[in-house]
Amino acid sequence: MTETTLKGFAVLPADSFAPGPASGAGISANGRTGPFTQGQPIQGFSAVQFADDQTFWFMPDNGYGSKANSADFLLRIYRVDPHFRSNESGGSESGDGSVSVGDFIQLADPDNKIPFEITNGDTLERLLTGADFDIESFVLAPDGIWIGDEFGPYLLHFDTSGKLLEAPVATPNITNLKTLNGQPPIVIGHRGASGSRPEHTLASYELAIEQGADFIEPDLVSTQDGVLIARHENEISGTTDVASRPEFADRKTTKTIDGIEYTGWFTEDFTLAEIKTLRAIERLPFRNPFFNGEFEIPTFQEVIDLAKSKSLETGRTIGIYPETKHPTYHDSIGLSLEEPLVEILQENGLDQADSPVFIQSFEVGNLKELNQIIDVPLVQLLDAADIALDGTLIEIQPYDFVVSGDERTYGDIRSPEGLQEVATYADGIGPWKRMIVSVKGTDADGDGKADDINGDGAVNDADKMLTEPTMLVQDAHDAGLLVHPYTFRNEGLYLARDYNGDPEQEYRQFIQLGVDGYFTDFPATGHKVRNQAIQSEVKSPDNPDVLTGMALSNLGRSRGFEGLAINPDRTKIYPLLEGSVTGDPSNALRIYEYDLATAEFSDKLIGYYRLESPSNAIGDFTVINDNEYLVIERDNNQGLAAKFKKIYKVDFSQQDDKGYVEKQEVADLLNIQDPDDLSQDGSPTYQMPFQTIEDLLVIDSQTILVANDNNYPFSVGRPPAIDNNEIVVLGLSEPLDLDPRVGLAGLLDQASLMALAPSPMS
């Protein structure tokens, strides 16, 4: 890391205004209450470029932080002349530390290029406001001004007078799915939409389809007369009202299923006609029992009929994903599941390799048998008994292995060698999700058991933290196998503490890890997150299409193009998002490439910028040379709580195997040497403890300019006073490999900089 020294210091007071209509209606903070009748606040500097060899263009953002409160804030770019207080012995004339604001460029859309409503849409000038766009970054190019917006996020193209030249350029969603075949993951309605309706009912399956499920999953057991019906277990006291039926009281019995003794009522002791008199009930006590007693128990054929009719009705293919339950047990009582399953699929024309069907089983032998008699894809399910305190799995065996004396466990099956064997008879695996990402508990009291961290009286996933992902997805893909983990649920007790009660975060993580589909009790959530990850454009919650319900948001609010850099020959620009897109790792920020000659985004990303913490944000992005660029990365704290405000150098030509560009620390903005006390705070060091630091420009190979965004009138990085706009020049002890066309020396090669046509200040 280079040592950083303060070489110049200037301050624009917080309460600085430019001519214009009153602004800030409804704003009140730190002793300032709008509307500000003095005019337009000159605040929130979010980007900077050279104006000439003495002055700079500084661009404020959208005003007061949101669409709702910034409709009276006009979007402008100001010419700013900092009179830097500096060390005269360094060869430059020292100023008094003040800042003069000159003319400005008013951004407007007089030619009606914007295809959605804007605040001043009914006026002739159509001046743009902070309710229309959140402008955060800009560059000066041969064809005008390019601005990065966060509401879309959009690229905005203006001429040098500030007139919008074309419609906002939407951001393509360049997906890099790590699935086996590069296709989007499928959504499998686990027992239907079992989080909202009693499981394995036609109502549950129908709701799953309505919520976007691609496949519906019936678990199959047999009746006494050999009909396949949809139940999770052949013991049905927990999923039907059989226990309340006096006519079936004498059917209650005790049986051993897969080595475990159960007492209750069993489907193989009932004819289909008798089963049809029963009604489904909710299995889990914390789910809604409102529909208890409403729905019949469906046959497998009825599930197929529903899938077919809904396929015709919706125009999309609805697949079925049956599981054979306890096949060894069913064989032992003369009610084999495989033969009637194959027969029904054949009768329905669903027996080909490309049929919308997967057959799954926790046993191995029956899948090998099915592989010889039907061509549909087969899936080997994988199970475990539980999770140890440290997150390791407690292994068990497939029951047919227990019977045959095979000592292998599911752990052996999911080893790289085991998966290669699975690939000889199956097309995919269905692992418990904890085999991909496990959870570990905390044992503060030393009793060897996970503690009840949230104090709700129960220990479950909500009390545990995620472990590092395993290699299972990659190992399975290496063996040519699909990966469909189970089961994703929205309730908090099933969500690790890391997800903060948000089930969407779990889906995002597994999509990023490359799963090919997932079983979910809540298909609507799985469908939403999957579609966010694969939709054609990146959209924030403030995107007009999202606000009108025409699209989903797949990027966080205020996480758009905070950074925008231009290459040295000014032919390409590089927009940098401030937040991760759904489907990307939480600390991965996309670096796009946009070709000015073709007016198109590249179909590939430059790479990803890796945040040191997912809670951090970037502040600005600027060029050094063709491959190297500077980035401000910061935490979201201010004052004494501010701990991380740094500048990194990134290298596009150096990336790791995950696409992250190489980064190297250049400056710590909380540890700047100030031997001449240019900041006049009496300290030999200078700090920038501001929440947002969003302006960065290379002056020469050993000098950079940095400024904060004071978020007027909200931020207080130097309490008790409200933040000013501090503009500083920093010296680097180690020179940058600066392209001669970049920095102050490159100004003569950039004639368009001198051609900007600002609006008069009065």
Model description:
The chain is an alpha+beta fold. The protein has a 5-stranded antiparallel β-sheet, with no helix packed on it. A hairpin with a 2-residue loop joins strand 3 (28-29) and strand 4. The two termini are 46 Å apart. The mean pLDDT is 95.
Task: Summarize it.
This protein is of the alpha+beta class and 762 residues long. Its EC number is 3.1.4.46.
Keywords:
single chain, 762 residues, alpha+beta, 5-stranded antiparallel sheet, 13 helices, 14% helix
Main beta sheet, described?
5 strands, antiparallel
- Spatial extent as radius of gyration: 32 Å
Low-confidence stretches: none
Helix/strand/pairing class, anyone? alpha+beta
General form: elongated
Q: Give me the number of helical elements.
A: 13
Q: State the distance separating the first and last CA atoms.
A: 46 Å
Q: How many β-strand runs?
A: 47
Strand order of the largest sheet: 9-1-47-46-45
Helix content: 10-25%
- Approximately what portion of the residues adopt beta-strand conformation? 25-35%
Overall pLDDT confidence:
95
Layout of helices and strands, plus pairs?
Layout: E1 4-12, E2 17-18, E3 28-29, E4 32-33, E5 40-41, E6 45-50, E7 56-60, E8 76-82, E9 85-86, E10 99-106, E11 135-141, E12 144-149, E13 154-158, E14 169-172, E15 186-190, H1 202-210, E16 215-217, E17 219-222, E18 228-230, E19 253-257, E20 260-264, H2 272-275, H3 300-314, E21 319-320, E22 323-324, H4 327-332, H5 338-347, E23 359-361, H6 365-373, E24 378-382, E25 386-387, E26 393-394, H7 399-404, H8 410-413, H9 416-422, E27 428-431, E28 439-440, E29 465-466, H10 472-478, E30 482-483, H11 503-513, E31 517-520, H12 523-534, E32 537-538, H13 544-547, E33 561-566, E34 572-577, E35 588-591, E36 594-595, E37 600-601, E38 607-610, E39 617-623, E40 628-634, E41 645-655, E42 661-668, E43 672-673, E44 685-686, E45 692-700, E46 703-709, E47 725-732
Parallel strand pairs: 15-16, 15-31, 16-21, 17-22, 23-24, 24-27, 27-30
Antiparallel strand pairs: 1-9, 1-47, 2-5, 3-4, 6-7, 7-8, 8-10, 11-12, 12-13, 13-14, 14-32, 17-18, 19-20, 25-26, 28-29, 33-34, 34-36, 35-38, 36-37, 39-40, 40-41, 41-42, 43-44, 45-46, 46-47
Helix pairs in contact: 1-3, 11-12
EC number: 3.1.4.46
Keywords: Glycerol metabolism, Hydrolase, Signal
Catalytic activity: a sn-glycero-3-phosphodiester + H2O = an alcohol + sn-glycerol 3-phosphate + H(+)
